């Protein structure tokens, strides 16, 4: 069968999924997720598609060939949504699609939700932009160079800023209209100290295998009646961001350091690899996330107490964690300002603009080329519009969390 016919069938199946969702009374949730760049891990009922769809019982060899052809032909969004539709047909389609689709490090593309927690490509960065909404204190991360005219860009992640008495939280979600920490769209958070000089990145899942002790406070989240006996219900500290105090009030850009406990410094050495999760833990989501129909009926209990055991920090080994520092700008005499080469991706001067490179010692045996490589850059291009370009070994989630720290007020650092 021609490839165009296959894709037409897949699009029809997608429309059928939307109709089923609306009939189930969950149209708002489904539309909000379909606008996202990635699809939710929990697909609608397989039995409904098995009955309606003759594609569900295809021979594995034929199915493999179909999905491979679709994946190779649709490399950019929004056309790449067809690949996500393949994974939503049934379990057999989903498993084969997951085997075919490569990680962002290997192919430079984002497809499934877990892609947002996998390292980016090593050579060319993945280019995104952030839209800030001051009225609602939300920050939306979109995939693309700059905002498009038709507002058709794909949403990757969303964050909401919540001011508290002693700190500020940025709650990060897969969708822009659900920031509940009991939801299965919750992926993590960023928390600042009182002065806004130190931030901690929390992940909702275990990013690695090994554990090293942490001095941070325990931050647990669980549903009152849904607690997994096998998985601790808490956020896992994976990194810290520190801004240096500007005591003398000297002119110049902010100075920052990022320590990523979940990424070893060996990841940027020759032959090194960064931790790459393959899926969200299903049992964790099933135990902690209420069904859409029960949303808001049970309270979410959030505990944070110094008397509780310290929150574990998960690390890929006992090696030293990766540290990033902002690249030092140069002073431009004619323009009378500090300058960095953003290669055209930043057009407006701002104290928030930065580039991060690896902070390594000679003993780490990191090549000079790798030391000069910009791992993350962030900058302003218009009113409430900022670009974010990241690459290996950072994931989209980690890069987004680091950039969110730049939006918090820091009077002691400027």
UniProtKB/TrEMBL annotation:
Q: Spell out the protein name for this chain.
A: Tubby-like F-box protein
InterPro entries (UniProt xref): F-box-like_dom_sf, F-box_dom, Tubby-like_C, Tubby_C, Tubby_C_CS
Q: Where is the F-box domain?
A: 55-98
Show the ranges annotated as biased composition (Polar residues): 275-292
Report any Pfam family annotated for this entry.
Answer: Tub
Report the gene name.
LOC111292430
Record CDD domains:
F-box_AtTLP-like
> Which biological process annotations from GO are given for this protein?
regulation of DNA-templated transcription
């Amino acid at each position: 069968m021609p490839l165009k016919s296959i894709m037409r069938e897949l699009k029809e199946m997608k429309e059928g999924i939307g109709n089923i969702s609306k009939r189930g009374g969950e149209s708002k949730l489904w539309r909000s997720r379909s606008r996202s760049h990635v699809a939710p891990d929990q697909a609608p009922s397989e039995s409904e598609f098995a009955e309606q769809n003759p594609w569900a019982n295809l021979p594995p060899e034929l199915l493999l060939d179909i999905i491979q052809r679709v994946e190779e032909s649709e490399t950019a969004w929004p056309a790449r949504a067809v690949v996500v539709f393949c994974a939503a047909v049934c379990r057999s389609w989903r498993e084969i699609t997951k085997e075919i689709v490569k990680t962002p490090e290997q192919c430079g593309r984002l497809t499934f939700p877990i892609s947002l927690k996998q390292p980016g490509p090593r050579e060319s960065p993945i280019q995104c932009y952030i839209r800030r909404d001051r009225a609602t204190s939300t920050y939306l991360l979109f995939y693309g160079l700059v905002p498009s005219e038709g507002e058709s860009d794909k949403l990757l992640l969303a964050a909401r800023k919540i001011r508290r008495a002693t700190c500020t939280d940025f709650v990060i979600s897969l969708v822009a209209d659900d920031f509940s920490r009991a939801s299965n769209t919750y992926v993590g958070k960023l928390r600042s100290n009182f002065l806004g000089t130190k931030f901690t990145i929390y992940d909702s899942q275990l990013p690695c295998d090994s554990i090293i002790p942490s001095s941070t406070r325990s931050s647990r989240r669980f549903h009152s009646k849904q607690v997994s006996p096998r998985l601790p219900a808490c956020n896992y500290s994976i990194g810290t961001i520190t801004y240096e105090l500007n005591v003398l009030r000297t002119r110049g850009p902010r100075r920052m350091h990022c320590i990523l406990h979940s990424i070893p410094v060996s990841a940027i050495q020759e032959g090194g690899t960064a931790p790459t999760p393959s899926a969200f833990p299903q049992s964790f989501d099933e135990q902690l996330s209420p069904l859409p129909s029960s949303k808001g009926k049970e309270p979410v209990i959030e505990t944070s107490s110094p008397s509780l055991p310290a929150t574990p920090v998960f690390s890929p080994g006992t090696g030293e964690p990766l540290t990033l520092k902002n690249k030092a700008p140069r002073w431009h005499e004619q323009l009378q300002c500090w300058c960095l080469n953003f290669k055209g991706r930043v057009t407006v001067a701002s104290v928030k603009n930065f580039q991060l490179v690896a902070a390594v010692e000679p003993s780490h045996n990191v090549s000079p080329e790798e030391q000069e490589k910009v791992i993350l850059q962030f900058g302003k291009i218009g009113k409430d519009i900022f670009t974010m370009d990241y690459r290996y070994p950072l994931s989209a989630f980690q890069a987004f969390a680091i950039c969110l720290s730049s939006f918090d007020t820091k009077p002691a650092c400027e």
